[in-house]
Input
Amino acid sequence: MLTTNLLLASLLPLIQAEETVLGVFIFHRHGDRTTKSYAPTTLTDLGYVQVHESGSFYRDRYVSSDASSKIYGLSTDVVKTSQLNVEAPVDTVLQNSASGFLQGLYPPVGATLGTQKLGNGSEVETPLGGYQLIPVNSLASASSSANSENTAWLQGSSGCGNAIVSSNNYFFSEPYLAKLNSTADFYRSIQPVVNGTFTSATNTFKNAYSVYDFVHVSVIHNQSSSIPSDDLLTQETLFQLQTLADVHEFNLAYNESDSIRAIAGSTLAAQIVENLNATITGNSKVPVAIQFGAYASFLSFFGLAQLPKVSENFTGVVDYASSMTFELVTNATVSNTSYPSVDDISVRFLFSNGSASENQLTAYPLFGQSEAVLPWKTFTEQMDKFAIGSQVTWCSKCGNSTGVCASADATTSGSPTSASPTSSPSGGGISKAVAGVIGAFVTLAVIFGLEALIMLVAGLRLVSKKRLSAGQVAEGASSPMAKA
Output
């Protein structure tokens, strides 16, 4: 007995040192969708598969009984909706992507768990093999558009005046004008492919993402025989289209000397802190927050968090079903009677370019730090430098004075976030009401290039798109991220 006790005592430090995941915040892009050149844009079967498989991956990581990083206290098989906070803008592609993801996270439970006994002694079985209903909360964009994925420039939905001006300024910058001129011949060379959808005036670098989206969808979902002049679409040409779209979109989403351009990343940062903060203050009562949003929110946040310093691939548009995850972790003892103090809690950032089921979820250091796991205090201090989490602050930064901003109390403090987990979450990160106003998941503002969306009837039957090269983001990788 003495020997056994001594053995247990020697193992105790190891047991206590085992990492526990207290909660997570997942920001996820929608799955493969139809081209934006022809509305309405819809989630494709391929996109449905992508987000479902991503949900299954996260189930294996966080939810199932044998999960590799089981979240403390999280229900394993039958979902407890009170433990989840799932949100997506009012958009059919994003809402359906969220639903598909949740089906993978909590799949049907079968007849045994999906059967309920009634008071009269009879039993009722849940339809569809125990299909679990999980609500997705709606976040309206500032433009109140029900289909923001139908527009090429998601930035316009932010409603932030100064962000619109900032993004528009890119179109007058020397780098943009130089790229516009240097690529003119390249775009002219593929005009036969896009005739009927883009004119010679709109088939330019000004509409780099729209042109890329149109061509890429066609290549992925159509036989080459149905693509006009398909011989022009060599691998080199497709890669060039992808690279130019990368440059175009990153510069509209982020500018190091003009932070307001990254309004999407700033509001997202406040959402991240608010949700993680709520997990801590609630002792992991709501340990999982999942939000679906647009690719430009990724780009804005990447820039603000200094991730391009880790790899230049963080300057490319993320692929469909990409996700970034923030894990709250601790090595302290966690039980019903013992919850770690904030000094014992850290945050790990992970990212997968494309569905995490196919592309490795990898940890990366944020804010120019050397470590991938940061103390909670360090994490929130860094996020607070650029997070915008109150209506007053947002109105002030955006220069807006009408609508909801007309009634904002100018004397109210505009503190971006509250890093202290002892404070109320509503006093820190962005509230649900504010999120509905500022469109946290759609990006800053640019309305140039809208003419590319008013398309004539085309000869192509285009249904969806997926990125060209599924190169995983990693330091030193040579190929840029595939397009969204």
